[in-house]
Amino acid sequence: MIEDHQKKAEQVARGLKRRYRAEKRFRFYGIMAVAFGLLAVAVLFTDIITKGSGAFRQTYIQLTVHYDPEVLDITDLRDESQVALGNFSGVIRQGLYDRFPQFSSRNDKRELNKMISSGEGFELRDRLVENPSLLGRSETLWLVADDDIDTYFKSYGDSGGAFTGRVSETQRAVVEGLKQSGDIRLKLNTNFFTKGDSREPEQAGIWGAVVGSFFTLVITLALSFPIGVAAAIYLEEFAPRNRWTDLIEVNINNLAAVPSIIFGLLGLAIFINFFEVPRSIPVIGGLVLTLMTLPTIIITSRAAIKAVPPSIREAAIGIGASPMQVVMHHVLPLAMPGMLTGAIIGMAQALGETAPLLMIGMVAFIVDIPSGPASPATVLPVQIFLWADSPERAFVEKTSAAIMVLLAFLILMNTTAIWLRKRLERRW
Known about the structure:
Blueprint: H1 2-52, E1 57-66, H2 69-72, H3 80-84, H4 88-99, H5 106-112, H6 120-130, E2 138-144, H7 147-154, H8 169-181, E3 184-188, H9 190-194, H10 207-238, H11 243-255, H12 260-272, H13 282-306, H14 310-318, H15 323-351, H16 355-359, H17 380-388, H18 394-424
Antiparallel strand pairs: 1-2, 1-3
Helix pairs in contact: 1-18, 4-6, 10-13, 10-15, 12-13, 13-15, 14-15, 15-18, 17-18
């Protein structure tokens, strides 16, 4: 008898050891999975930051330009047509020729012409219009370098080794001379934060996409939040329990899992083809993202309403409140933190969507900053898509920098949602 008990005790002990070993393996596998996920995120963020950090700095070249009326072919600054057709690029070229007289052959001059961004001519035109007294005078300015020069100078190490790319020997000699004289340096890339898209990488910025995203999200929030909250209140508080409401609930849950590109096709078929809403404007983008965000807001709002204790409703009814007063005065204020959290998360999801916006034509090349919801615009995810598809090497860092800005917005929105939930939630 004693031996049987000892055998059973030994069997139980061996079984417990196996269970403990299995539990330790399970914990180890879980820790390894979490560590692998964190490592993958760290590698991703490191790669994006490494590639995109250079976009926040831009290579500038100091150059003296002379606003020669003969070169500009301008005799009267009050004549807008003369100013618009002024040869401001010729002024920059002449400044380069005067700065580097040793490069006098035709090929050398052709390479010199590529040192400064072609968009700087428009900057000189604006300066001359703002200050007409500059006509006929000289001025020393820091001008944006061409994207090839920018890429070369950023990779220019102390040892002199650099990514040459499409930079010629003449241009490398010019950069070396500018570096020794201190007339070339990296400065904050203000163009990236103040301008719209451009064919020239050194002139391209994200401000147009940021403004377009802002207008699109404002329209999305203005439409989806009140409609979603009203639908949630009706379904949770007033709708009768029958097969029709069950069918509506099932469809709302199914819509939350529908691929986003389907909403883009829906917007293309209804808003553009049927109602003839113009393409590539924040209005159409907001309408499509509203359709995509509504199921998320309805589901989270219903969950927030369900979380309100029934005793709140019973107490309000007990003191004579009507069903509408119960909802508006008691249930809705208590459920609002959860609703706001769901809405912000839905907005963050909408901000990162690309597929539905591509379907409704927001992939257009937009240079000007949108002035309103009806102005042609693009959004940050589509801007990233466009830059990633560009062949110029300089757009690689622009793409990564735009991704950093988008991630910063998403982190900010999710942090705001968490803060609102902690700040406004009430414990019963």
